[in-house]
Amino acid sequence: MTTTFGKGCHLHLIDGSAFIFRAYHALPPLTRKSDGLPIGAVSGFCNMLQRYVDGDHGADAPTHLAVIFDKGSHTFRNDLYDQYKANREAMPEDLRPQIPLTRQATEAFNIACKEIEGYEADDIIATLACQARDAGGRVTIVSSDKDLMQLVGDGVEMLDAMKNRRIDRDGVFEKFGVFPERVVDVQALAGDSVDNVPGAPGIGIKTAALLINEFGDLETLLDRADEIKQPKRRQTLIDMRDQIELSKRLVALDTAMPLDFTLDDLEIRDVVPERLMAFLAEMEFRTLSKRIADRLGVEAPVIPDTPAPEQAQEQAEDVPFDASKYECVRDGQALQAWIDRIRERGWVAVDTETTGLNEMIADLVGISLCVEPGEACYIPLTHRQGASDDLFGSDALAEGQMPLDEALTLLKPVLEDPSILKIGQNMKYDAKIFARHGVAVAPIDDTMLMSYAMHGGEHGHGMDTLSERYLGHTPIPIKPLLGSGKSAITFDKVAIDEATAYAAEDADVTLRLWQLFKPQLHRARVTTVYETLERPLVPVLAEMEMHGVKVDRDVLSRMSNAFAQKMAGLEAEIHELAGENFNVGSPAQLGEILFDKMGLEGGKKGKTGKYSTGADVLEDLATEHELPRRVLDWRQLSKLKSTYTDALQTHINPDTGRVHTSYAITGANTGRLASTDPNLQNIPVRTEEGRRIREAFIAEPGNVLVSLDYSQIELRILAHIADIAALKQAFSDGLDIHAMTASEMFDVPLDEMTPEIRRQAKAINFGVIYGISGFGLARNLRIPRAEAQGFIDRYFERFPGIRRYMDDTIAFAKEHGHVQTLFGRKIHTPEINAKGPHAGFAKRAAINAPIQGTAADVIRRAMVRMPKAIEGLPARMLLQVHDELLFEVAEYAVDDTIAAAREVMEGAADPAVKLDVKLTVDAGQGANWAEAH
DNA sequence: GACATCACG
DNA sequence: GACGTACGTGATGTCC
């Protein structure tokens, strides 16, 4: 049915950003009643769209239609001129979360919604308008932006939707004093303070138009500038020629940019009432949904009159916890009743009970649900009957449970329904359990992540902690139910009535926490952090963890044996040297041998009264003695064997043959992830022997491992945050940053640099990131403290911005109780005002957190965008190691994958943050991780 | 379960 | 002037 765009067609192009800002400023700051989400701009946007669709604009009806949005803050204009739009104010905090909703709104109206990374909406509009005009059609641009006026003419008109005023060639002349084809000339001269286009100083639109009309066009004017009578004006045009020509390039729209769609894709489509109503209902627009429903002749959606946040909070506190009210759901009918309530409500708190903590292995035992504080249920599914001493009955299913499949069949549509929010505490766990049963839970909210976004650094984010702190309620502990040690049982052995009280309460607590946190998120100014850096990471990580990484057991096993042999030899030598047998693995025994029996120099250690035998101590002793050297070698092998070659084998999943780590999103205060069970973020790499362990991490046949890692990301971020011109310059010149530092510090030319001097400078660079101290640097470099202090003083002298950054950061922390990353992540520093030795720790942590945290945010953003970027490629993201991402890729697609992933990683800060220093990514590939890294 | 040690960024 | 310090993690083995 598609017609080809051509004569008789009429294309309408709506400037989406203009709509959004108008809507935002025209309306008071409305919030969604149920959860406090700001929605004023979305509401206004929908209103404007509806009015437009109603034809309330006096223009001929379109045959083709699209809403065009900006995407990304960096465009080719920024490359031309780094000050372009530089003085534009940051987007208001309560508008930011509404931007994606306006896209959804457009789609809900079934209107084409277009944006292209790196281009302004104006360029897309210009390109489309030209295409449509060339095809013989007409165009109406719904906008009053003067930057678009250059497009008017030959069937292209503008429409100011607010004033219902059409702008044609004469309208443009009215505004600019010239016709559309000369508008850019006038703009180039007059400049634009809003977009920070410089233009010619002292020349406004009036004068510009006068000049252009006199000389014909800008080029002629500039060529013949010496003919201008007014001396000042003449001089300006002669002196500022470059700036004026640059301005013209900035204001001229790109009418031939690449598009990934055609005019025909914009053919007008009928609205799908159900879809539009679902969106309006989700936004809780009562009046608007009713008005539009009337217009469409359909039933208006019922929007539950949910309590305002403050009331919800009171309710959450008012309703007492009462385990006897929890229902045990044992059949389909009872479950259906709960599902009905969930559908009515639009959200549900969910919790799963399983036989263990490893979600790749644990079996689902039961599910609890909660839709209202105090009202929760537990659905037992695979509890075993009888006590554990019942030798025969313990494996049989207990009575009175629904079959697992039946329960999941009923729940699946709800858990996957995009209009029903699933709320959980650590949802990644539950989502993975459900995923193993073929249920893709979405969309989700996570109280643990909300707490992390609001209270990172203040306290833990486990449910018990949160419940006690924010609900004043101590949940039933799990310990008494499961026991501990050898006699511990799994949850499926817990009696169903006990399980119901425990499990349903967890869902109850989760829902109450959610009702409390949801409105607070916005007040704490962390909605964007939660929505862009926490919540969207859940499905990405779940996917990575479930996919796992292939590990070759035989390689590990062989290495284990080799290590064992070497260790045995070393152990014999150590005993020989010591003159007695002792446990080499016991620091206490080793200390006595070294310092008491052999009488070596090298002190004690405080608290426990034992000798310190750390690597640094042994390293010093090793210059004079054999034994400590042997112990160091033995320890290295012992570590490699026990932690890696042995333990890793036990983590190979028998079903998949792969190792599945688990990432803790809230694991580190700074925003970094933490990897556990096993930790795959500390696989050896620094020593040759250790690195060989990475040879056991392999790809499936026909595939290779690809590793991409950020180069010096923390130092780059430091250079940006502390605004160190010399560092920024060095990065932009692609210099060896440590050598450059050394050269600057010690006045050594780069071509005379020695590895030793560079090593010292490298230590200082890292020291700065860690909150440098004379003592720490002295110990790291093994130099006298005074000398180390001298280095630091000199560093501050050469890079004064560092001192300022440190002082400012500590002052900020003292005043606000937190520091923050460039992306708005808050890291609380409760100890910053402490007295005594604590204070030093807190200060250094405060200095480090914005740097480490910003780097963590950057890679999180890259990870969130990665699935889309590599969509369609035979590639999977497997692991994250703080500044590195590891992929498994079909051999033939390696180059494409590297290109796609690198683009995402290098551009990960955009558009939220414009870094002064570009991020660069190194890539490697190979049959195993040792080769790829 | 605390502590020491050591693997990573 | 004295504190005692590099930042952020997790896993293992010893010893109580």
TrEMBL record:
This is DNA polymerase I. Keywords: DNA damage, DNA repair, DNA replication, DNA-binding, DNA-directed DNA polymerase, Exonuclease, Hydrolase, Nuclease, Nucleotidyltransferase, Transferase. Transmembrane segments: none annotated. SMART domains: 35EXOc, 53EXOc, HhH2, POLAc. InterPro entries: 3'-5'_exonuclease_dom (IPR002562), 5-3_exonucl_a-hlix_arch_N (IPR020046), 5-3_exonuclease (IPR002421), 5-3_exonuclease_C_sf (IPR036279), DNA-dir_DNA_pol_A_CS (IPR019760), DNA-dir_DNA_pol_A_palm_dom (IPR001098), DNA/RNA_pol_sf (IPR043502), DNA_polI_H3TH (IPR020045). The gene is polA. Residues 326-522 form the 3'-5' exonuclease domain. Residues 6-269 form the 5'-3' exonuclease domain. GO terms for molecular function: DNA-directed DNA polymerase activity. The keyword Acetylation does not apply. It comes from the Bacteria. It comes from Ruegeria sediminis. Single-chain monomer with multiple functions. It catalyses: DNA(n) + a 2'-deoxyribonucleoside 5'-triphosphate = DNA(n+1) + diphosphate.
